[in-house]
Amino acid sequence: MIKLRNLYDLGLINENELKKAISIIENQNNSEIASSRIKITKLFEDETGTQFEKLQFYLDNFRIYTLRPGAVVVVNLLTGENDVVLKDNFKAELSSNGKKYFEFIYDKEKLESQLNYKGKMLINWTGKYVSKHQATFYQMQILGYMPFHFYIRLNSIKKIVALNVDRFTSKINKSVEKAKEEIANKYNLSVSDVDNILEKNQNRVDKEIEKVITEEQQRLIQELTEKYAGQAIDNEIRAEIEKTVGEEIANALISAIEYSSGLAIDAAIEREVANEVDAAISEAVAMGVSEAAASAAIEAMIWVYAMGGTDEQAMDACRYYAGDAC
Fold first, then answer.
1. How far is residue 70 from each of residues 36, 52, 196, 266, measured CA to CA in Å?
2. I need a surface site. Which of 117, 180, 272, 285 has the fewest CB within 10 A?
3. Structural domains counted in the chain
């Protein structure tokens, strides 16, 4: 599919030839979604390795990419239309054509959802609310384990901030490696023993995805366990771990991974909150407000939101310290 797009971009084939070729490939492809069929690439690369980078991949005649922080689009290459838009706080828009191939499932209580393609899970989208910061951390993973989009919704200042996928994943991986070493030392295991447990998990995920599953069967299958920390461990994987190293070690390993992941998420949110507060203070100072007054105004607004106050109450608190600058 990517090669066809390159031929089109080079002017070697026209639009009608591109659509015809894509249509033929789509009809030849089976309905399975294997990781080997998906190659995630960057739309642009940040040299510092710290800023948000948009990602994309192709599947059959669809291009899936991050449009902006908190928004992922599925565009149909045959029609040029957006068949699916996932954005912000679990909002999903599916076109009439998109509904033929895609299905969006959302559990409001658990803050988790998934986008199915031809009856199989394509994107796993979960959220984690952190009351300390009045913010929600979201992650989208392809096939349930391939990192695709991480972002934070800062409720108190009504802003969405995206994280660099590689950098955040690296932090999570370092936390997980540390947790694995601690568990291995505590229970006289090698790190490779722990890796074997996680590898079994990954192999089961891949095998489950590659099965030909009817729509009715799909609804009966439990949510696939994700490779990365911060995700729920299902009963089947828990039993598999327990069989290998015992219930006590299994619980300790799962708790350590989830705890270290939670710390990484909390740190990421705290950093972004601090960045946005600093930016707001700098803007107020530029408008002639003293730094002390600006800082007090921002802190007052955050406190009002944290207590469940309204926008107007937050603005009143801001004006008390910073006057008309709010």
1. 26, 11, 34, 18
2. 285
3. 1
